């Protein structure tokens, strides 16, 4: 679970590249929470990158660090040729208009006292003159795009909407400034399966229509697989495996990916419930295990795992894993 | 065994709420039975009335709830609604227990875990402090909490989400209930932890021989866990069957739609999901016809005017409430007719549904 390697980076054509990102928080009494410990990945323009892992693996922290919310402890985040970590406050503000975020709980991320049209228009009123018809037109356009009727919803307030509709409003708010990148932090985890499907479809449509690049953060591999072009599996602040979603499902190389796949509840009674279960608890990020961080819960653990941190390496074309003893993967396979 | 009365009999249960907007019919005529040691899964979207259903069974409704005459809930041969206060006090916990969706809000944040587990043991079983603590320790081991002795002295905020849910399970099991109601026990948890908790519930149930009602919005969760499944929509049961029959012969369009909206890991990435368009009806209104008709691809004239009842499909224990059940020739005709016009009888635009 090293993830210090960078063999999976694709060079200069990437729209966003994150290198050696480290995020640490003081935890009192000189203790430090190692939330993210040196991860690297890049995102091509128009691509959807899925970040998947359990609670506490640092996936949300990574998403927020990309937005400089707050700035990472160390490492670099390059967005469209600009080093985000070195920007002045004012430049950062300007850059952030092109990088937006959607959060997990749609209801609490909307101001309950404001009308939908004002919530969605806020970005416009900050950045442009909000007078005139163009702003109203733009708000109506994005509301319409996310499947809400502007005439009906504009004057309503968030409490009059269901969770799924609130998430649509959040998506509209993110779209209004024509961003290049949207970071979606568990956008469907709080929703019912039926509504989840609507929102996932909507994100795909919006990506197509507005030419977006997405970062999709979730804990459910089935959801991530559905929307992503490339998946990064994270565990305790490190990268375990990077691959295309279909390759990852067909040939998971990392033991942790195996467990994540086995945990997905299959809607099929003939499909036996897998015996594979992750044992134990997530170790404390204040004092993470030496070597491979997954070793305390891994079935395949050997002495080497505690001594040496595995680096990301390519085991098949565009399939990278950070494990000393990965599963066999057919090298000739072309999963995507 | 066959002659024995089921543990739980729910007969035409209706639960209404008196709200400022009018009478809200949260549960509107639900019947089912549950045998000793059996698991039933109840599946439906938010607002379908599944939580109100189990709260009615447990008789823990808010004061504005109205249960009209004719609704009956028999537990172990006794009508739970006619229990006196003193009987009810020892009924919760020892006969039926419940675990809720959010373990953080169902635990008291300012009391140590040990106190919260021993509370009901001392109250219901009259155990001494010492005995209760020993029993609590046993329970902590049973629900798989590492370092149980240390954890007993900790507060809920010191535990992870999965551990907290294990604690609520320990509390629910403290007095050996005959029926455990799990209301979305894993919705707030990660998939990996969800699996751990579901596995734990299954093994505990086998060990203790409890009956269980497992409520969820995800058909995937109940597929491997429940023996029978009831699908609820807008306060009604629309399809019930044993699990294998339900998955192999889905009859109700709502069951089918719920099933299709699940992202499947076997499918190629970027596979478009069949989302259910629209949302459930406002239950304050007087609903005429099939409640799912406005969102249904197969809706015909009859669906708007007549309300289908649950009827037997011919397979044992399989009942459903649709005039045009999925897989029947009538259903195929209905879909063909709707596709030809591009719009269902209830006004759902099929062409738009395919795009949005």
Give a description of the structure:
The complex is a heterodimer of chains A (about 325) and B (about 350). Chain A has about 325 residues and is an alpha/beta fold. Chain A has a domain at about 10-100 and about 180-320: Rossmann fold (3-Layer(aba) Sandwich), CATH 3.40.50. Helices cover about 30% and strands about 20% of the residues of chain A. Chain A contains 11 helices and 12 strands. Chain A has helices spanning about 60-65, 90-95, 115-125, 135-145, 150-155, 165-175, 195-210, 220-225, 245-250, 255-260, 305; strands spanning about 15-25, 30-45, 50, 75-80, 80-85, 100, 180-185, 215-220, 230-235, 240-245, 315, 320. In chain A, the strands form 2 sheets. In chain A, strands 6-7-8-3-9-10-12-11 form an 8-stranded mixed sheet, with helices on both faces. In chain A, strand 4 (about 75-80) and strand 5 (about 80-85) form a beta hairpin. Chain A is globular. Chain A starts with 15 loop residues before the first strand and ends in a 15-residue tail after the last strand. The mean pLDDT of chain A is about 90. Chain B is α/β, with parallel strands linked by helices. Chain B folds into 2 domains: about 10-225, P-loop containing nucleotide triphosphate hydrolases (Rossmann fold), CATH 3.40.50; about 265-355, no CATH class. Chain B contains 14 helices and 13 strands. Chain B has helices at about 50-60, 85-90, 105, 115-125, 130-140, 150, 160-175, 190-210, 220-225, 245-250, 255-260, 300-305, 330-340, 350-355; strands at about 10-20, 20-35, 40-45, 65, 70-75, 80, 95-100, 180-185, 210-215, 230-235, 235-240, 310, 320. In chain B, strands 7-8-9-3-10-11-13-12 form an 8-stranded mixed sheet, with helices on both faces. Chain B starts with 7 loop residues before the first strand and ends with a helix. The interface between A and B is large, with 51 and 49 residues.
């Amino acid at each position: 679970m090293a993830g210090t390697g960078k063999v999976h980076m694709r060079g200069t054509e990437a729209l966003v590249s994150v290198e050696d990102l480290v995020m640490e928080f003081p935890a009192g009494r000189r203790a430090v929470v190692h939330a993210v410990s040196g991860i690297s990945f890049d995102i091509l323009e128009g691509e959807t990158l899925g970040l998947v892992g359990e609670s506490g693996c640092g996936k949300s922290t990574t998403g927020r660090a990309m937005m400089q919310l707050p700035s990472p402890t160390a490492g670099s985040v390059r967005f469209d040729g600009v080093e985000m970590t070195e920007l002045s406050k004012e430049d950062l503000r300007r850059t952030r208009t092109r990088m937006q975020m959607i959060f997990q709980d749609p209801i609490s991320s909307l101001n309950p006292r404001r009308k939908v049209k004002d919530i969605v228009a806020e970005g416009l009123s900050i950045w442009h003159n909000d007078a005139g018809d163009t702003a109203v037109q733009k708000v109506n356009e994005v509301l319409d795009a996310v499947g809400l009727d502007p005439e009906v919803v504009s004057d309503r307030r968030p409490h009059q909407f269901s969770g799924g509709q609130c998430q649509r409003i959040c998506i509209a708010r993110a779209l209004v400034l024509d961003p290049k990148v949207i970071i979606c932090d568990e956008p469907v985890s709080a929703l019912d399966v039926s509504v989840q499907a609507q929102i996932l479809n909507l994100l795909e449509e919006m990506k197509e229509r507005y030419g977006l690049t997405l970062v999709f953060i979730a804990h459910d591999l089935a959801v991530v697989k559905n929307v992503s072009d490339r998946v990064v599996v994270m565990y305790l602040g490190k990268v375990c495996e990077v691959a295309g979603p279909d390759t990852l499902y067909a040939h998971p190389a990392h033991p942790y990916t195996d467990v994540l796949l086995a945990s997905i509840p299959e809607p099929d009674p003939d499909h036996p419930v897998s015996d594979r279960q992750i044992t134990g608890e997530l170790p404390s990020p204040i004092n993470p295990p030496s070597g491979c961080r997954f070793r305390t819960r891994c079935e395949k653990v050997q002495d080497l795992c505690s001594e040496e941190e595995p680096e990301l390496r390519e085991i098949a074309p565009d399939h990278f894993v950070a494990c000393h003893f990965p599963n066999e993967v057919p090298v000739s396979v072309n999963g995507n | 065994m066959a002659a024995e009365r089921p543990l739980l009999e729910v007969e035409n249960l209706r639960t209404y709420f008196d709200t400022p907007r009018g009478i809200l019919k949260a549960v509107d005529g639900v019947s089912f039975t549950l045998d000793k040691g059996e698991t039933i899964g109840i599946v439906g979207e938010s607002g379908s009335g599944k939580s109100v259903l189990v709260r009615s069974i447990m008789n823990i409704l808010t004061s504005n709830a109205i249960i009209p005459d004719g609704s009956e809930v028999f537990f172990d041969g006794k009508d739970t609604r006619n229990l006196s206060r003193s009987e009810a006090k020892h009924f919760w916990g020892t006969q039926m227990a419940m675990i809720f969706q959010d373990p953080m809000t169902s635990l008291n944040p300012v009391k140590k875990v040990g106190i919260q587990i021993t509370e009901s043991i001392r109250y219901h079983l009259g155990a001494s402090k010492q005995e209760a603590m020993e029993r609590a320790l046993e329970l902590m081991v049973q629900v798989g909490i590492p370092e149980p002795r240390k954890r007993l002295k900790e507060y809920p905020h010191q535990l992870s989400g999965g551990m907290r849910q294990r604690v609520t399970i320990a509390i629910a099991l403290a007095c050996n209930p005959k029926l455990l109601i799990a209301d979305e026990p894993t919705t707030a948890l990660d998939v990996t932890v969800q699996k751990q908790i579901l596995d734990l519930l299954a093994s505990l149930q086998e060990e203790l021989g409890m009956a269980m009602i497992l409520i969820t919005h995800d058909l995937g969760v109940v597929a491997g866990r429940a023996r029978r499944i009831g699908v609820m929509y807008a306060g009604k049961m629309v399809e019930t069957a044993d699990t294998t029959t339900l998955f192999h012969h889905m009859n109700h369009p709502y069951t089918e739609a719920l099933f299709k909206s699940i992202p499947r890991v076997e499918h190629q990435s970027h596979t478009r999901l069949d989302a259910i368009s629209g949302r459930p009806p406002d239950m304050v209104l007087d609903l005429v016809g099939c409640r799912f008709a406005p969102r249904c691809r197969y809706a015909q004239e009859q669906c708007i005017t007549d309300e289908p009842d649950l009827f037997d499909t011919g397979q044992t224990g399989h009942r459903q409430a649709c005039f045009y059940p999925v897989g029947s020739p009538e259903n195929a005709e209905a879909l063909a007719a709707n596709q030809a016009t591009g719009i269902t009888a209830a006004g759902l635009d099929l062409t738009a549904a395919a795009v949005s």
